[in-house]
Structures are given as structure tokens and as C-alpha cells.
Amino acid sequence: MSASDKTNITIIERDDRKSVRKQKRAYHRLFRDMNIKCTEHPTQHLMICNGGLVTGIKRETLQCVLDPLISKYTLTMPTGKTYCFVTCNSKEDATCVYNYIHGRIKLPGQNGPLYVCYTERVPITDYFVSDSAFPPGLTLIENFITEEQEKMLLETVDWDKCKNVIDLQSISWDQYGTVWSQLKYRDVKHFGYEFEYGTNLVNPDKPIVPIPQEYKFLQTLFDKHGHKYTYDQLTVNRYLPGQGIPPHIDTHSVFEDTILSLSLGSMCIMNFIKEDKRIEILLPTRSLLIMTGEARYAWKHSISPRYDDVIKTENGPTTQERGIRVSFTFRKVRRGECYCDFKDYCDTARREIFIDDKMASGLENSYVHKVYEEISNHFSETRCKRWPCVTKFLKSLEKGTLLLDVGCGNGKYLNGNQNVFKMGCDYNSGLIDICRKRNFEVIQCNCLYLPYKDDSVDAAISIAVIHHLSSDERRLRAISEIVRVLRPKGRCLIYVWAMEQHRNSKDSLYVKSGKKSKESENINESEINYEKISECNITLPIHKNRTVFPRSDMLVPWTKKSGERFLRYYHVFRDGELVKLCTKIPSVSIKQVYYDEGNWCVILEKCVERL
């Protein structure tokens, strides 16, 4: 504790009524937590009710208060608690401490004075529990670089200059030779290749400015310690006090095995988690953390967003304030897929999904048809507003046009414009019943087998339907069916969900409606939950609502008002995928392709057959 902190310890007049209230609350808390009773009569044992590690009080600070009062005592500070204990040599010493501190001593940084209770006993230890064994494959080298080298590295990164010249989105700026991002939890710079947080991927065919020459001495040090990768990607993170990073595993398919992270400027505690195991690792400044094997591929790592860490000292645990921490993380970009031994955590293994026609039928029955039967009324309540571009297409139709809405839902596009005759079809009986109550012309059918004659309708629309089909063959068949029933020169409009929920510097309404922070749309591979599909013997990722899509084949939740949750299958289309599918149909020409609020859209025209 500094001299200035000592002078900030103040003595105030005690408010007895408030002191009694604080003590009573502490009685209940202590008995609930540790089965220790407080007493109104003096004992050798004291609890400082609001002076624990969780409140940010250091052991050294309390020692500065106690040392002038008594010569011998034991200070016990349990981790994860807002209180601590003092055991004195005698009741007289305990009474002296009680009378001096209780309701009268205010420590620097605290909102109010300390409150004290007598207790029957104290816990035997500080309860500082941390597995001393590192995760397999994890190594920490302290003092990896000198203080002079640390200073040089920190001076090469000018964060303030970045903020003056760019907005808060991640963009490239060649005049400084890097890519800079400001995320919710930290500031980030990339060299060599940009890590795209929206998809958790790196494009190996799109390098950015390489790792600066002044950092090359680090590669020499890596070689000396046996890590002879030629690292080609560097991520520099800056964490202010109170910032951290959520639990995650670096994406397998993006980077090779060994990952090196150099801590500069300030220490911090990094958490390593695997299933029910949790290990806290103190990363001193200038230390190098090496993650390989199991530690790299199967253990999540994170930094809790807080202003201080609980660290272990010779006298017991205490708190250590965080400063500004900068990490230099070196990786080798992977070319090709990952073939590690940790399949349960590997994005490459999870992407290898093949769905044949038989599997597709079972998947769609359970995760599309049955789900929509359950949610049809709630779904209909949320589907009232027409999409402007669809309305524009409908208004372009000539008077007397016969329009077919394939997958009409609750019929929101079957209403209005009396000059066009409209009919619809849908697989879902609940939505068909809603349409019939509204006097719409509808039938129930499967979009793979439309019960209409060839060349029988003038125009068609299929809005947010094709993406529920789970194989290329079935998606192609559905579009072919729509084209089949079109008359020559008839047009159809098709909408499907896009994987790219960010486009032209804008977010789709789907992302915007749920965004709570700059980083809320970014999901790391290790944060994705999966569901085993017993009908197909495959596993699909469960999408987190209002975020970008990390996969093409997803299960998307729907929650009813009652809180009951259902999972719907979606195949979200990548840029160009819908067009590629349509070009396989020989009898159509593609008239227009566009992106509309998170959807890929295409207008097709059926060709006139040549004699």
C-alpha cells in the first residue's frame, strides 16, 4: 500500500442504526455461506462484513489498519467473498479492533465505512482453490523478454492515433499497415491476415500488411524455445482495466496447432475450462503462454472482465489491480482442413455433414413440418407486414395475372390488389386453416410436388420457403416445380435466408433487432451448441438468435409466448449459391439477383420453347 493510500484512510462518526442493519445482514450471510454464527459478546474472532477480496480490498490495506492496533493476528481472506476474518490473540485485542474499526474506518475506494462482527470461529483456510497442474499442452515462460523490449513493443502500437482516423468498425487502412477493430471487450489489431470475427474465419488468399520487421526478434526467441513455425498472423489485443474476453477455443480449421501469446503492460488471470474442470493461470507481464495439443484444441480460455484479480502470495490471497494489458498472439494460418484428435471440439469435423434424400425427409418432418404445426398460430401473429421488395414485384404484375404463392404461410401476400387472381399452397395445415378463415384460395401440398398443371400460372412467389429443404437435390426440385407450372415468359420471385447478415456496411434487420453490443453478433466455435438428430444420425449446430450464421445448415430456435422452445431446420445460402442452383434449370433465365435485408433474392423468367 502506498503512502498516499495510507493517508486516504479516514475516520468518520459512526451511525449506530446503520451499523446494526449491516451487522444483521452479515449474520445471515455468514451462516448461510459457512455455517458460522455471529455473537454479540466479544470473542477472539472478528468478521469484517464488507472488506473482502470481492470488494477489491487488498490484504496489505487491511494490514496497514491492523498493525498499529495489535501486534499479532491472523488475517483470513476467503476468495469469492465480500468479507474477511481477523483472529486476535485475546478478546481484549479483538475488542480494541472492533471499537476502532466498526462503522468508523473508511478505506480508499470504498463507498462507506467498514462494519465488524464478533464470530464464534473463523474458517480454517482462505479457501484459495486453484488446480496447480496446467492443462496438458500448456506452458508458461516468465520473463520471456526484457523490460526494454517490452517498452519498445508497446511503443510501436499507437491506439490513440487509430481512433482519430477511423470509425468504430473494423476496416483496413494501408497508411498504418494493419487492420484495426474496436470490439465490446477490447481493441484489436491484425497483421498478416485478418481474423473475421463475424464468421470466425481467416481468408488465406487475402493477406494484409505483414508482421512488422521490428517484431522479428520474437521469431528468433520462439525458434530458440523449439517453436520453429514461421508465424504469419499476429493479433494484438489491448485490454483496459475491467475488460476481458469470453470463453472460447481458437477455431481449429483456421490456425495450426501451436499458438503463442505474449503478455505486456500488466498481469492478469486467464481461465482455462474443460467440462467441469477450471484452472486459473496467472500471466505475469513479459510472460509467454504456449498453447498446443489438448490445451489449444479442447480447453476454452477466457479473461474475466474485472478491475482486479485475486492472486496467491506467501501470506495468503490478495487482490492485484489490473493495468492496461496488451497481448501479442502469434499464429500460423492453416491451409486446408483440421485433422486433430479432438473431434468433439473441431469445426472441421462438425462441418462434414451429408444429407441424402431419405435423411432429408426425416429431418424436415421433425424439424420443419412438425414444428410449424406446433407454432402456426404464434408464427402467424408475427407475420403481418409485407416486405417492400416483394410488394413491388406484386404491383408490377399485369391486370388479370394468375399468381401462385408457394409456401403462402398465413396468406399475407394473398391479400390486396383485386386485379390479380391469387392462390396459395402450404404444407402446414394450421397455416392453411388461417388462410381459409380469411377466404383465401389455398390448398395443402408439398412444394416438391405441386398439384398444378404445367404452364398453368402467370407468376409465382416463394418467400422464405426453399431454405427449409435440407439437400441440394430437394432445393433444386422445389425451384424446378415452380418453373414447371409457370407459363412461358412467366416470372417467379424467390427469397431465401442469406448466410451474409452483414452486407454493404449494413446489418440485416434480423441482426439489428437483437443487437445489444458491437460484439453481440460474433459467436466463437466453442460457444456453439449442437443437437443430435436421431432420424439422420447427424449433429447440427443450434443458432443463437439475432447473430450471424457460422454454418450453412443450422437449427434455429423459435420460442412461444409460453416459453416453450422449438428448433427449425434452415439451410442459409451463401453468396452466389442460389444463382448457381437456378442455372441448373435449363428452361429459365435469371432476370435479377439482389440482396434484401438478410435474404438472397432472384427473379426468374421461364423461356419460350423453340420449335
Automatic annotation (TrEMBL):
GO BP annotations of the record are:
tRNA methylation; tRNA wobble uridine modification
What residue stretches are annotated with the Fe2OG dioxygenase domain? 230-334
Location, primary (coarse class): cytoplasm
Which Gene Ontology cellular-component terms appear in the entry? cytoplasm; nucleus
Which of UniProt's keywords are assigned here?
Cytoplasm, Metal-binding, Methyltransferase, Nucleus, RNA-binding, S-adenosyl-L-methionine, Transferase, Zinc
Q: Which SUPFAM superfamilies match?
A: Clavaminate synthase-like, RNA-binding domain, RBD, S-adenosyl-L-methionine-dependent methyltransferases
**Which cofactor is recorded for it?**
Fe(2+)
InterPro entries for this protein: AlkB-like, AlkB-like_sf, AlkB_tRNA_MeTrf/Diox, ALKBH8_RRM, Methyltransf_11, Nucleotide-bd_a/b_plait_sf, Oxoglu/Fe-dep_dioxygenase_dom, RBD_domain_sf
Q: Does the keyword RNA-binding apply?
A: yes
DNA repair keyword on record: no
Q: Which CDD domains is this protein grouped with?
A: AdoMet_MTases, RRM_ALKBH8
- Cell compartment(s), UniProt: Cytoplasm; Nucleus
Q: What GO molecular function annotations does the UniProt record carry, in alphabetical order?
A: metal ion binding; S-adenosylmethionine-dependent methyltransferase activity; tRNA (5-carboxymethyluridine(34)-5-O)-methyltransferase activity; tRNA binding
Name listed for the protein in its UniProt record = Alkylated DNA repair protein alkB like protein 8
The root-end lineage is:
Eukaryota, Metazoa, Ecdysozoa, Arthropoda, Hexapoda
